[in-house]
Amino acid sequence: MPLKTRSRGGTNWADTVYWNGGTLPVTNDDVQVLEGTDSFATGLNQAAVNLSSLLFDSGYGALSTTVGAAGSPLRYDVNGTGAKLMRFAGSCAAFYFQGGSTGSIGQLEWFPSGGAGRLLISGATVTTMVLQTGAATVNDDVAVTTLVVEGGDHVLRTHASNTPAITATGGRLRIERDWTTLEISGNAVVTIALAAGVTGGTINNRGGTLVWEAGDSGAVNVFAGELDKSRLARASACGTLTLYGQAVERREKGVARLTPGGSGRVEIGRGPTVIG
After folding, report:
1. pTM
2. In 3D, which of 274, 268, 214, 215 has the Cα closest to residue 241?
3. In contact, 152 and 131? CB cutoff 8 Å
4. How far is CA 121 from each of CA 127, 190, 218, 253, 267, rounded to the nearest angstrom?
């Protein structure tokens, strides 16, 4: 796959002066932005192009750099022959991105240097999304098969049908849509905030903090870490709630309750430490 690199200078992404060979990237190219602090404001709609890879390296950007804007995102598919990888390791204030004609992204990795920078992604279908630093807002028109959260502060907006498998080992994640399985560990803080009538899948907490704000789910297993019900905003339900000896259960403060179904509330061994 041909390698296309963009040199520093200019705010028009489509200005061929800054691309090697004097031509814009085309389908199956590997695209790299390695340097400069340029913000890109025009020439961003490349929806007909399906890249092999799209890389913004650690030498690109500054804390004031922006790529695109609301209503004018950078647009590509990244699912061509080859790596199928979109990776951002540079610096930015905000990065607006939308999929191309099919919306397909093979793997998206977001880890802005310095821990700052917000990804605002829309109109895409992502097979694997890995969020390591910074912040990301995954819009309601983005479908994700597998979501991995290792750090940062992120929001997974509501979706009519998408049910990703989610693994959170660090950072903060607010979930507003259904899921298949949710695995929590490390120092992750995951907040459940589902709309009325939406039921999530299974939850396994192995050491992080699960904050229940609103919504129903399947079975919940708290092997370790904390189940925090103190911020419950409305009556919610789950499947069988199983709590092990390394678990901490923080009880509801208001009148709303989280009600287990299935086999109800099950304590294993000495059961959890209960607060409140």
Report:
1. 0.96
2. 268
3. yes
4. 14, 20, 28, 36, 41
